[in-house]
Amino acid sequence: MKAVQITTICMLASLSMSAMAAEFSFDRPGTGFSTGITPVGQLAWEQGLPSATYNEAYVDGIKERTLTLNGNMLLRSGLAEGLELQLGWQGPVWTKTKRAGQTQEDDGLGDVSIGIKKAIDLKDDKLSLAVLAQAQLATGNEGFSAEDDIYSLGSALAYQYDDLITTSMTMRYELQDGGWAVTAVPTIQYKIAGNWSGFSEFVYRKAESQPDETSIASGVIYALNERAQLDASVGAGLSGNRPDYQGGLGVSFLF
Q1: Residue 190: which residues within 8 A CB-CB, separation 6 or more?
Q2: pLDDT for 143-189, tens place per residue?
Q3: Left (φ > 0), alpha (ψ -120 to 50) or beta: where does 21 sit?
Q4: pTM of the full predicted structure?
Q5: Preceding peptide of 50 cis, ω within 30°
Q6: Sign of the C-alpha dihedral, residues 209, 210, 214, 217?
Q7: What is the pLDDT of residue 20?
Q8: Is 134 helix (H, G, I), strand (E, B) or coil?
Q9: Do the strands 73-80 and 150-160 form a parallel or antiparallel pair, or are they unpaired?
């Protein structure tokens, strides 16, 4: 009898762990974040390989082209059921700027961030919600830092229509040196075939005393297994009439 009870308990524990693993989702790629929480005692490592941005601007009437590469990184660790700690780093950054026939290269280290992400139980199988409180600390080198700390509160609400399509809305409110900013990111995620899936998003950002900023992005994700994935994405800014592109490659692991 004891053997049967032990076997039953082990089976239930295994099913419970499988359910927790199934609910987990990586925050890469995209501007928003997922509603999934890292299981207790496990670590998620999400790494850019790298991320890239390209933009053009006129400075004193002269066209300036800038290419930026950075190896951004995010570590997520489960603290308790439905609660995780996030540690981020914008990583090493390299820039190449062309202006008036001259080229200048520079490099440095970006800012670090710390956050707490909490899942909110909505008692619904298809609807999920998570909130993220985060502080970006201006610890990076000059020219590669936000210069002032940024404090933010974000929320992600996701609805799973079926096994193929999930939609979500991420809202982020920021405070930096007394100025505020708000960002809204509606996203659709979809299965493509086999281990392939994709996403598309629209990003709207409004900062105090600044014009609206909008952009779109799409990408693909390849699940190596339940604990690892590769991703690639491209995007473009829609604000103004100057070229503004971003994209990158990434890899994520759950240990």
Answers
A1: 164, 165, 166, 197, 198, 199
A2: 999 999 999 999 999 999 998 999 999 999 999 999 999 999 999 99
A3: alpha
A4: 0.85
A5: yes
A6: negative
A7: 36
A8: strand
A9: unpaired
